[in-house]
Amino acid sequence: MKTLLLVLGFFTLIVAEILKVYLIMPFPGSQQMNSIDFAYFMFFNIGYFRLAGLLMIAYPAWHFLKTGKKRVKLLIGTFIVLYLGVFYAVNFRMLADKIFYQPNTVSFVPASQTGYEMTDLVLGVEINGESKAYPIENIGYHHQVRDTVGGTPVIVTYCTVCRTGRIFSPEVNGTPETFRLVGMDHFNAMFEDSRTRSWWRQVNGEAVAGPLTGTTLPELPSEQMALGAWLNKYPESLVLQPDTAFLEKYENLKNYDEGTSESKLTGRDTASWADKSWVIGVTLDEKAKAYDWNELIKTRLINDTISSTSLLIALEPDSLSFHAWERDTLVFSLSDTTNFIVDKNTGSEWNWKGECVRGMLSGAQLKWVLAYQEFWHSWKTFHHRTRTYRYRKPGQAHLKQIR
């Protein structure tokens, strides 16, 4: 009986510690399970499992250490060291906020003073006349950056494993909140608020575990594009500077923009509709649709419709910066002679800000639509009934619904 209690006690201690981190970090198999509720339970009840395990081993361990043979004592000592090693690794090395840290300083400079290349990808936001750009290879390491834009508090988030950039208001039910990176669910970063300790998904700002389950953070409109394209739209924009304390960490994301990262979690599948291939995702009238990045590279423009909204998806000549606009009854094509897009209806020319600059519709402005670039596995996971745009030939497109 003493031996059984000893074995069960060590098993409880070690397995409980492992489950605490296994379920919310990208270990083999962990992110394919719908285990968020169990993960939340284990995370916040780990103390009870520790107590139960210690109570089970206390008397048997004391007994065997006092009366057992040297081999038995050595075995018990080995298990104690093993548990302490697991405890240290789980709680001080493997948790998300022990791997990824928030910046010590958040500083900005005008575009003329930044050291970033014009082809570097940024997540940009404009609020109340103030615009700021957050380089992805910077915020991708931190996962979140707290800031204020146009007098409005924001939390700028990025998950490199899903290739999802989102900006939210960090207010929960009207109260300012702070968040820490706690792990991931279905490969998407999760944050924990400081007051209720609920867990929030980065991809949509929804609380998926804890007292505030079902609550969502207000999302603020943002755009991902090359820094040069962003500055073309907002010349006075400020640019986030790297925190010098994390230069080595940023270096690990050096090739992330291009999708050539060596990591299996963050590298790109070049084939279309593979898990790690890139798509442009749009949601209108609660209906989601995905557009293959490879197809967009070839065609540059996609005239499509979601629900009852006519949509234009456009890729700038830099092959990095994309846009989505409502096009009403207009049908667009690329100009053969200029760096403009042209509507076939009137022959008017439009720039990459969605402004008509020449022709019958001069002065008109296309209505901007929120769109995201992300990995296909992420978009289809968090948009269960998404449709996909499949180009066949002019005038035809094949739609497939993902259930």
Biggest sheet layout: 5 strands, mixed
- What is the typical, i.e. mean, pLDDT? 94
Question: Going across the major beta sheet, what is the strand order?
Answer: 1-15-3-2-14
How many extended strands? 28
Structural class label: alpha+beta
Helix percentage: 25-40%
Rg over CA atoms: 25 Å
The tally of structural domains comes to 3
What are the low-pLDDT stretches, counting only 5+ consecutive residues below 50?
none
DSSP helix count? 10
Q: So what's the overall shape?
A: elongated
Gap between N and C termini:
51 Å
Strand content: 25-35%
Keywords: Membrane, Transmembrane, Transmembrane helix
Pfam families: DUF3179
Organism: Imperialibacter roseus
Protein name: DUF3179 domain-containing (Seleno)protein
Describe the structure.
- With 403 residues, the protein is of the alpha+beta class.
- The protein folds into 3 domains: 2-94; 108-251, no CATH class; 278-401, 3-layer Sandwich (Rieske Iron-sulfur Protein).
- Helices cover 28% and strands 32% of the residues.
- It has 10 helices and 28 strands.
- Strand 19 (309-315) and strand 20 form a beta hairpin.
- The N and C termini lie far apart (51 Å).
- Keywords: Membrane, Transmembrane, Transmembrane helix.
- The chain crosses the membrane at residues 40-62, 74-96.
- This is DUF3179 domain-containing (Seleno)protein.
Give the arrangement of secondary structure elements.
Blueprint: H1 2-22, H2 36-44, H3 46-67, H4 70-94, H5 96-99, E1 108-110, E2 121-127, E3 130-135, H6 136-142, E4 144-149, E5 152-159, E6 164-168, E7 171-172, E8 175-176, E9 179-185, E10 188-193, E11 199-201, E12 207-209, E13 219-220, E14 223-226, H7 227-233, E15 238-240, H8 247-251, E16 278-284, E17 287-292, H9 293-299, E18 301-306, E19 309-315, E20 322-326, E21 332-334, E22 341-343, E23 349-350, E24 356-358, E25 367-368, E26 371-375, H10 376-382, E27 387-393, E28 396-401
Parallel strand pairs: 3-15, 17-27
Antiparallel strand pairs: 1-15, 2-3, 2-14, 4-5, 5-6, 6-13, 7-8, 9-10, 10-11, 11-12, 16-17, 16-26, 18-19, 19-20, 20-25, 21-22, 22-23, 23-24, 27-28
Helix pairs in contact: 1-3, 1-4
